[in-house]
Amino acid sequence: MRGDWPGYFDVLARADLFVAVSRQQADARPGSVVFSPYWNPQTRTSCLAVFTEGMLPAPVSDPVFVAQSLGWYARVWEDSDPAFLAVNPGSPCEALLPATPAHRAVWQQHHDRARSAGKAARGELRALHVGGPLHGPVAHGLACAALLLVNNGELWNAMAYHGTGYHHERLRLEKSWGITDREGWYRAQEQLLNAGMVSDVWQFVLGVRHALARDFAGPVALEHWREGAERVLRRSIEEAGQARITPEGVTPGRPVSAAEAESQVAGVRRMIGRIARYEARFRADGLLPEGAYIRTAEAWDYGRASGMARWGLGARFCTLEEAEQAVLRAGRAARSAYRSWEDFSAAYILGRCLHFDEEEFGSWYSDMLDAHRVLTTDPASPWLNIPWA
Hints:
By secondary structure, the chain is α+β, with helices and mostly antiparallel strands. It has 3 domains: 5-117, no CATH class; 137-198 and 298-385, no CATH class; 200-276, no CATH class. It has helices at 5-13, 23-28, 70-76, 101-117, 137-143, 146-152, 166-177, 182-193, 200-216, 222-240, 258-284, 299-314, 320-337, 341-357, 363-377, 382-385, and strands spanning 17-21, 38-40, 45-50, 64-68, 84-87, 95-98, 244-246, 249-251. The strands form 3 sheets. A 4-stranded mixed beta sheet has the order 2-3-5-6, with no helix packed on it. Strands 1-4 form a two-stranded antiparallel ribbon. It has a two-stranded antiparallel ribbon with strand order 7-8.
């Protein structure tokens, strides 16, 4: 509005610029982008339309959107391509950018400057203030993945999710989850919504402590916790070796050798020590109140379930309606298991650390601690504006 084109290009150079492509073309040639120009009566030329993330339409099966940088357009543009790059055409923030070689050199200069400064969005709280829910059940479910989205610099409340483009979302699911089709996405989504990817060992030791805390109406000493878990484990090992009468008849037991039993007991005792050390660090860093403890690690799955719904939509393995229902289920499951955003956050971070961190307290932990602090202090945070229950 004020005609600050250098400032405009600086912003544009830090943004993903999405272009619509045929899904058939995108699937057939994942490494290439086919331009589909449109006739613009204002310029009386052909233009290529690109959109910033807040101006994208809701995802549909076809077309899909591929994200590229301003520098990429500057490098691949040919003289035979459209005369103008149209940014957010038809909107109040429309800009028609001439695409001559001299103009493309300016695009490249701004891109290079932005790249040297680094991408600022990572670790920031970002939201759609128009076009994304800020309150209500869907927003609550979306906010269950806010730790991850703040860490990645993504919009926490983009239900109509494109992520960083069709190709990237497919690659994300394939590399991190081994998901390459709708069936694989659905299986993973259901597992996460049912907390089926949380380690049984984590749940066992946390459950034993929670039971002891209820029985004794107070904190559970570390050695008491270890001894209680060992008793329960040895009893279950003994029972597993005994025959059982079922409606189908007599089911033989599965005896466990003494060596295997001792190995399981030792593993449980190690896990208890590991969790206790993480919780001590959490208290020191303000993630857990003094005297508080984590009852279940299910948040690790529910938070990822909220993310998985959107990743599946970005990869077109599900519809917007299916993704929204999964987000709602993730929110309901989280509310049933936890008492507050802070309670949920500590459990999610514990799950992430147990899965990835190996007690190094490296970036797997520090990134989440930073995101937690943003979400518990920023006045615009969903955790401060959406009631837990």
